[in-house]
Design brief:
2 domains; Aspartate Aminotransferase, domain 1; three-stranded antiparallel beta sheet; Aspartate Aminotransferase, domain 2; alpha/beta; 361 residues; binds pyridoxal-5'-phosphate; seven-stranded mixed beta sheet
Length: 361
């Protein structure tokens, strides 16, 4: 059995060392005589696993002590619906910046509960850029501003945190969390589904400033109340224990690799390698994103002759390169370069692309 070079956008590649460890301790977790999946979430063993995962995540991102960390089911999408319910009054204005597909989805989830305003949108350019800060129209009375740090489908990423005064900035970091260093204190909230850079699907994390948590929000059931989840240490009901455990293993693995600063340098090299192959292909491959806004995690590209795309994907697969089909919204090819994708995998893809272009150009 051999593992292939996996560029899947999500659920995505996990570190092989983590999968091996999980395999090793699958039947009997640390002498408990049962799998971690079979332990009560109320027992000491699992409570320790959960607490350690949170500690490691806090350490990796240097989360300030006063910020809350919550682990939840429902993915990034549920959190998108919880934002207005928890942090805005009924019908209150909320600002959203649209830089791709996931920003649109966040708007859909918020719309039933508040007055969604589009601060700026790059839709007109086919989501190939981030509108200049000077063009954002922010509402004085908005409860928060929502941005998508990295647009997984369109391949558009903020190079840096936008500099804003007196704005509660909420960032969807589903596909970029832990890929580069960030200053958490610049955000009111960061959230992410796990299945890109954290672990398997089934769990999501949110990192929240206490002032945001103090908001009254709107009438909602306890299960939709983020504060209630926190009060119960993210165990208001049965949490996705196996996903939480695996996320914890990924955090440990990341710490062993030197933390976020070390992985950031590797991620930068991976992205540079792939974009240089695209840019040096004399137009055979094209990426449509303005260079300053190019994603380091998701690299969508097109073949000038799109008839060749099926052939590209087929030959890539027979060379052990999988997960490269572009999202149906934009088509083309997409290579996702999350933390668990090695430089060797990226080099294998780069070599295949150069070779394919030489044969077909
Ligand atoms: C994948 C993704 C989502 C959706 O995540 P789910 O966990 O499936 O709800 C939201 N935002 C971004 C940026 C994503 O990449």
């Amino acid at each position: 059995m051999s593992r292939l070079h996996n560029f899947s956008a999500g659920p995505a590649a996990l570190p092989e060392a983590v999968l091996r460890q999980a395999q090793e301790e699958l039947l009997d977790w640390h002498g408990q005589g049962a799998s971690v999946m079979e332990l009560s979430h109320r027992g000491k063993a699992f409570i320790d696993i959960a607490a350690e995962a949170e500690r490691d995540l806090r350490a990796l991102l240097a989360v300030p002590d006063d910020y809350a960390v919550v682990f939840m089911q429902g993915g990034a999408t549920l959190i998108q619906a919880l934002l207005p319910l928890n942090f805005a009054a009924p019908g209150q204005a909320v600002d959203y910046l649209l830089t791709g597909h996931w920003g649109e989805k966040a708007v859909e989830q918020a719309q039933p509960y508040c007055d969604v305003r589009i601060a700026a949108s790059a839709k007109g350019s086919g989501y190939s850029e981030i509108p200049a800060l000077s063009q954002w129209r922010l509402s004085d009375d908005a409860a928060y501003l929502h941005i998508t740090d990295n647009e997984t489908i369109h391949g558009v990423e903020f190079a840096d945190t936008p500099v804003l005064d007196n704005v509660a900035l909420i960032a969807d970091m589903s596909s970029s969390i832990l890929s580069r260093r960030i200053d958490v204190s610049r955000y009111a909230m960061i959230y992410a589904g796990a299945q890109k850079n954290i672990g398997p699907s089934g769990i999501a994390v949110a990192i929240i400033h206490p002032q945001l948590l103090a908001r009254a929000g709107q009438a909602r059931a306890p299960i939709l109340n983020i504060g209630a989840h926190l009060k119960h240490d993210s165990m208001l009901n049965t949490p996705p224990t196996f996903a939480w455990y695996l996320a914890g293993l990924v955090f440990k693995h990341l710490k062993q690799r030197g933390g976020v600063a070390a992985i950031e340098a590797i991620n930068r090299r991976k992205a540079q390698r792939l974009y240089s192959v695209i840019d040096d292909s004399a137009g055979f491959y094209r990426n449509r994103v303005v260079p300053a806004c190019r994603s380091r995690m998701n690299v969508p590209f097109f073949l000038a002759n799109d008839v060749l795309e099926t052939d590209f994907l087929k030959q890539a697969a027979s060379n052990g390169l999988i997960g490269l089909k572009g999202h149906r919204v934009v088509g083309g090819i997409r290579a996702s370069l999350y933390n668990a994708v090695t430089e060797a995998s990226v080099e294998a893809l780069a070599q295949f692309m150069i070779d394919f272009a030489q044969r077909k150009a």
